[in-house]
Amino acid sequence: MSLREQIQEDMKAAMRARDTERLGTIRMLLAAIKQREVDERREQTDADVLAVVEKLIKQRKESARQFREGGRPELADKEEAEIVFLQPYMPAALSDAEIDALIRAAVTESAAQGPRDMGNVLSILRPQVQGRVDMAVLSEKVKAQLSA
Q1: Collapsed DSSP state (helix, strand, coil) of residue 1
Q2: Residue 25 CB contacts under 8 Å (≥ 6 apart), including other chains
Q3: Which residue in 12, 29, 75, 135 has a CA-CA distance of 20 to 30 Å to 62?
Q4: Rounded to whole angstroms, what are the CA distances from 137 to 5, 121, 129, 144, 147?
Q5: What's the confidence (pLDDT) of residue 114?
């Protein structure tokens, strides 16, 4: 079963259970996937759907942070609840040890010598870790490894 099919099944289950918060979040996710299909004029693969989920989670985290800073905790709580509903569609996160091992392998593969080779290392890592690690964290770890 593809990720999109799983999302649609979860939407049906939320409808049956009358879980309005989960249903709203899943509908929003399906609308974002559909919009991307229309924009790109092709059916979305699991990797594409994963990228949409990842983008929505990142948006929700940023919105929650801004709402908290703005003194609107009720809106921040709503955004964080949506993150909880979106998180199950993401693959399991990588541990720090796994990330470090992947970085070492990518540095060796690309024969990177220093920070200026960071782009080459990240281009090797990106397909391997998509959706499993925050790219900002990965970038910092690669930079630290190449600077050492």
Answers
A1: coil
A2: 81, 82, 85, 86
A3: 12
A4: 31, 14, 12, 11, 15
A5: 86
**Dist. CA 142–CA 118, nearest whole Å:** 7
Question: How far apart are the C-alpha atoms of 37 and 31, rounded to whole Å?
Answer: 10
Summarised one tens digit per residue, pLDDT across range 104-129 is 999 999 998 888 999 999 999 998 99
Q: Which pair of structure tokens corresponds to residue 126?
A: 């990106």
3-class SS shares of the chain: helix, strand, coil, % to 5: 80, 0, 20
Alpha carbon 25 to its chain centroid, in Å, reads: 15
Confidence of residue 20 (pLDDT cuts 50, 70, 90): very high
143 token code pair: 């930079």
Tokens of 53: 């989920």
For residue 44, the one-letter residue type is Q
Quickly tell me which residue has 């770890």 as its tokens.
Answer: 141
Residue type, 66: Q
The tokens describing 147, both together, are 């600077």
Calpha distance 90→87 (Å, rounded): 6
